[in-house]
Amino acid sequence: MFQEIRRQARAFYPEAVAIRRRLHQYPELGWCEFASTALAAEKLRQLGFQVLTGPAVCPEGARMGLPPEADLEAAWRQARQEGAPEGELLPLRGGFTGVLAEFSHGPGPVAAFRCDLDALPLTEETGLPFASRHPGVMHACGHDGHTAMALGAAAILRNLSDAWSGTLKLIFQPAEEGVRGGRAVAESGFLDDVDFLLGAHIFGRGRPEGDCDLVPGAFGSLATTKLDAEFRGQASHAGSFPEQGRSVMPAMAAAVSALYGIPRHSGGASRVNVGRLEAGSGRNVTADWGRMELEVRGATTEINRYMEENARRILDGAAQMQGVSCRIQTAGGAPSVESSLPLCRRIQEVCRREFPDIRPTSYLQGPSEGSEDFSWLMERVKARGGQAAFPLLLADTAAPAHTPRFDFPEPVMQTGMTALAGVLYDILRK
Asked: Does the annotation count 177 as an active-site position?
């Protein structure tokens, strides 16, 4: 049966390439993945999956970092103009993107796979014939490939369903960038009966693995919290009546300086970054409004919490010193990724035994840089007694992720479909 999985992955590969290139040409930012959601939902329905879209995927109150309503509406209309099916689009309006799908075939374990849908706010410089047609938006992190692989694995396992028993669940998650969507999907409850959960990410080979194809599981990604702070003061004429004003400028300046001075934690790495500042209306007007976008990170969820608590204290204190107000909103966040060792071992063993050309690393877990909100889904499953793992698919990328020249060799998708479908089948087989 594993050889049949390999054969079907090879047969599906041209369609995976076509799906990937379609998604790459028409990338969509987080909570705006309307056409991407519609494409995935339509193909899953054709395969016979039960499909959920709309608010059932991400409860309204759980979504973080939503774009302005006007941006959501413009993106929805763009997807419709570019040919996304109207019937699939209607439940998504207002930023309710993402897909949950299920195929049940008798008693047995519940296995799930998650992929991410969204692109990044970058202007593409790859020169690819299927480069982005949306100015300032680009798939620069491999999510187009992840979606294509997930649809391929779904097709393979659906075709082979007579050979397994249990339930297969698929999650096509919105808004991974900025770690905004994972918590909302976790809170939908869709994963609460899952025994085994897999994710996957395409990674460049510039790592200590050497000439291998797959790291069975990631661990130790930085936990993170994204914060938006809005300062409010009192406007006045800066020359004639400065005493009547309350400027947000000194409060924001003091906050920036103090944020970078948070003492580092002895328990592991920590980060803080103020990425954007905007304030005031003119040089002769006391600034009565300002906005700061920042993030903190930590090697563990506990260290990140330490950084966040200090950041919030500093923002509030800086505002109070200047007699202005500060409203802080959480725009995104995620705990640290920690793959389950037994499931990592299973991934390694399936590759070694059934797919010897897919070379896993000798170790079970490898470090994962940055942050990843798949961790919300992993923690939800593990808290209920299940196992979760986040394999890394290694490839010779054209440039680092999150840069305008990023691209990956498309054959890695065939590797991913083979390995992921193989592991899921190993879990579900009779």
From this structure: yes
